Amino acid sequence: MDTWMRFRSNDGDIVFGRVEGGYLHEYKSLDQPVPTGAVLSTRVLTPLAPCAPGKVVALWNNYHALAAKLDKPVPAHPLFLLKPAGSVIGAGEPIRRPAGYAGKIVYEGELGIVIGRRCRNASVEEAADAIFGYTLINDVTAADLLNENPHFPQWCRAKGFDTFCCIGPSIVSGFEWQQAHLVTMLDDVERQNYPLDDMVFSPAEQVSLISQDLTFEPGDVIACGTSVGVGSIKEGATVSITIKGIGTLSNTLIAAGATAAAHAERAAAV
Amino acid sequence: MDTWMRFRSNDGDIVFGRVEGGYLHEYKSLDQPVPTGAVLSTRVLTPLAPCAPGKVVALWNNYHALAAKLDKPVPAHPLFLLKPAGSVIGAGEPIRRPAGYAGKIVYEGELGIVIGRRCRNASVEEAADAIFGYTLINDVTAADLLNENPHFPQWCRAKGFDTFCCIGPSIVSGFEWQQAHLVTMLDDVERQNYPLDDMVFSPAEQVSLISQDLTFEPGDVIACGTSVGVGSIKEGATVSITIKGIGTLSNTLIAAGATAAAHAERAAAV
């Protein structure tokens, strides 16, 4: 298992690499994982989302427990929508309430798959090889917009707002997802705790099947869908998603008008 | 009015600029429209889609005539899905039937808006200024997949396949869309002929309202939705979409296994 992160350096450059003992061993990129030789202390770096996906494919109804709760049959092919690249933020960055939207905002703790190489019509074996590693995702939704129009469910709109796709803190390659649980805390209350092996389509099956539909590029992300326990977030509340072996992804919801500086001050005061 | 195109040169470089009298006057980029001084004959260049959108926002139910035909009320906010960047092809490139999909493939002739600058929470006036120009789009759909699953309409999947977003041949800046008609020919039969001023949301309104939902980046595209006359395409058939003042976008559907070389041979033989 290796842990991979992406940072902004003091001079504004973006650096990516393997993190070990407080140091970043820089690599050329996620699709060209060749060491540059540079070693940087992570203390002088600002963490970013661990990859910059061109697209995020987000699954619906991919856990047996949630399908049973919703009383829906499990699908025969992954059901997905797309979240735009602009919705991505990293660990610690604030989720912003959209200006002009006063409705319910919902968290969903999810396993994320990060694609390492271009991938189209891939077999399950080829798909497994195309997976660079795993990360954590909070797939945020403006829930009241989903069915606002009775003729067209607005999945892309409700889930596509800026800051509505929290990814991080790292990507772990060689991670054995089969034995892992995902835990979501809303402030200090546990709201989700589900085993990843309850998935309908495994990560390699997802990549293989969806690669029949579209071409994956390096850095693209699949949000594997969530299970039971989703709920709404109030301003000021922090959602923390943990998978042992990957880490914890924490993000706080802030009001539409709030500034990131005020958010940082509040966070520092806690 | 200026006409803008993007090409691949013989040495593999991508060049963008203003086209006039068979020459490309190269510009730095769409968001930095500064002339480089280079002037190239378009005869030695291979045309590409005129921009490389990070995302394509595709509208549903944006024409009064189609809403009336579908017996649906016109929406209060643009209804949209996202088509991935990988679905984009240019004029003359083949639309490929997805491997493993034997169902109906449908064309939709549409006006395309090309965004020129980053744009978020824009007023209608700011949105109008953020529009670089207009292009033509064939928004292709694997229609039988849309409602294959009764619990989740698969808009992104059905419209997201590689080659399912034809854009081109050029972008025209300063184009007066209000007086224009869009005509779609299926081989030599006219199938769509509708006035653009029947739109529910005008281009500037679309950019303004959708910029409340997500951030537009330079080169992003909005497919403005289609009107009456959509229909299915058979292998070997060519869809040609024309708006006077912008040009004609033609693309031929080829079988899943067919090669582009065979397509080019067939096209040359006609």
What does this structure look like?
The structure is a homodimer of 270-residue chains. Chain A has 270 residues and is α+β, with helices and mostly antiparallel strands. Chain A folds into two domains: 1-47, no CATH class; 49-269, Alpha-Beta Complex (Fumarylacetoacetate hydrolase, domain 2), CATH 3.90.850.10. Chain A has helices at residues 64-70, 124-130, 143-146, 155-159, 203-210, 260-269, and strands at 2-8, 14-20, 23-27, 35-41, 46-48, 55-60, 79-84, 88-89, 95-96, 105-107, 109-115, 131-139, 141-142, 165-173, 181-186, 189-195, 221-223, 231-232, 238-243, 247-254. The longest helix of chain A is centred in the last third of the chain and has 10 residues, at 260-269. Chains A and B meet through strand 7 and helix 4 of A and strand 7 and helix 4 of B. Chains A, B: InterPro entries: Fumarylacetoacetase-like_C, Fumarylacetoacetase_C_sf. Chains A, B: Keywords: Metal-binding. Chains A, B: Residues 55-253 form the Fumarylacetoacetase-like C-terminal domain.
